[in-house]
Design a protein that fits this description.
The protein is α/β, with parallel strands linked by helices. The chain contains 10 helices and 12 strands. Helix content is 41%, strand content 23%. The strands form 2 sheets. Strands 1, 2, 3, 4, 5, 6, 7, 10, 11 and 12 form a 10-stranded mixed β-sheet that branches. A two-stranded antiparallel ribbon has the order 8-9.
Amino acid sequence: MKEPLVFILILNWKSALDTIECVESVEKSDYTNYKIVIIDNGSPDDSEKILCGRFPQHHFIQTGKNLGYAGGNNIGIRFALERQAEFVLILNNDAILAADVLQIFIGASLIYSQGGIFAPKIYDRQGTQNVYSAGVVWDPKELTFVDLKNSISNQNDFMTPKTIDFATGCALFIKTEVFQKVGLFDPRFFLTWEDIDYCYQARKYDYQTMIIPQAKVWHKLSASFEGGHKGPQFQYYSMRNRFLWVEKNLKGSERIKVFFKFTKDVYTTMRALCHRRVPPEQTLILKSGLLGAFDYVIRHFGVGRYKTS
């Protein structure tokens, strides 16, 4: 039986050294029928020269400008679909792939026919045994997402494939038929929440998202964000895009409750800033969050308007 063709998309933005490590880990795969596509998101440094020189055997796409996670990967997805890919692995360039991941995903796709999106267990590269994410589910009582790593105490359960509500965009193994029916990532998100949104959109077409714990990936946390998860860039996109996600994916009273919860967060931030209750180094971060909420209201999506200093 011929192995299905897998296209592996690796998006680069000013981080060629991370991308080299990522590609080299994929090249050690024990699966053979794959193509690597390196997509440079208009990096202003020497990324294109470095990566083309280091990997002439792989496909390289230059977007010409920063299109974000959603837009950059959409270009790679179209490229893969045009070349009859059967699966697409979207892989963060700061991730390292275990050699057997592709084999495990292919096997899971045969066993779990209802699955359309498959995700690995993700470890923190700075603490190789620390689990960063084991799949995420929505808690309707608390109106928040909960990572399964925090709720599974039995190690055997921790190794059992499960249906989840979303998987982090660090590594997503997706059947190409999902893209053909659901479409691509919503470019309005640009960065963050687009992975959550896509899993929810796929579910509308009866495609489940599944965590396959036997598949392992190691990830540099927050490497995609200037200042990490506590910086103004992340705060801006997280605040703006959470409202867009609610608008697209929740309905009825649940939508109203979550909108109210997020709006309350905005109000709390405004009060803290008005009364100068935050340290100076936190002011820019909180202002970025408020700007994100404002931009949602005025429908300013895509690339953000946050300030880093």
